[in-house]
Known about the structure:
Layout: E1 5-14, E2 17-27, E3 32-36, H1 43-51, E4 58-63, E5 66-67, H2 73-79, E6 80-83, H3 95-100, H4 115-127, H5 143-156, E7 161-165, H6 173-190, E8 193-197, H7 201-207, E9 210-215, E10 218-224, H8 225-228, H9 231-238, E11 241-247, E12 252-258
Parallel strand pairs: 3-8, 3-9, 6-7, 7-8
Antiparallel strand pairs: 1-2, 1-4, 4-5, 9-10, 11-12
Helix pairs in contact: 4-5
Amino acid sequence: MDRLWSLKDVSFGYGTTPVLQEVSLELRPGHCYGILGPNGSGKTTLLDLLSGLLAPQSGTIEFNGRFLHSWPKKHLAQQLALVPQDFMVRFGYSVREVVEMGLHPHLHRFATPSSEDLALIEEVLELTGITTFADRSVTRLSGGEKQRVAVARALAQQPTVLLLDEATSNLDIHHSLEILQLIRKRFEQQGMQVIAVMHDLNLASFFCDHLIFLKKGHVVCQGPTEEVLTPETIATVYGVEAEVTPNTFTNCRQVSFRLPVNP
């Protein structure tokens, strides 16, 4: 397929409040997408629409050539995994049990995980750095630890597309870079597609090769990071002055910003 998603004139709102208005997008394989914009611009709503958690109130969404609403839920879960911003588990499952839940879309009813499945669980526990507390109740974890569990569960799901909603917002700098590097490696080596809602412009520049900027429910611009991450775009979307320069240390564009200076 040459398109993962095709959105045509998609609108959505809560009550009488519009959140997204006539959004048209085509998301193609081979890109690591970042969705950016101010608070309330519709970023999480767009991700929820892409995942099928919400249905558009008008317009259409196609995924892999089929209308998204026509996909059986289990088949869609075999394709898509979502890491939410705030990962909540209200029962005292162990970390390992929560990560194993990622296997469910691929298991027949009442089937037990195979030795290969269990090996996969141990692999993602190790990759996400949570092996040392794998037998601890997930309710006893810090916010950052829970977020790494959420990423591990999503990787255990073996999706073709990973959707991230501020997935590193509760992580320190080291673990943020570690998780993003792990996901980027899966993208580059295994072809797993990634679409990430992000706030940090510099992390987005480091992680994404294609950016989509939203403001007040509309797409302001989209395109390759080096083309759309500009002072003009940042001023339009965020209302701040910005300087965007190449950074030889990170090998990506670096953003500095400030409030507009009154003349």
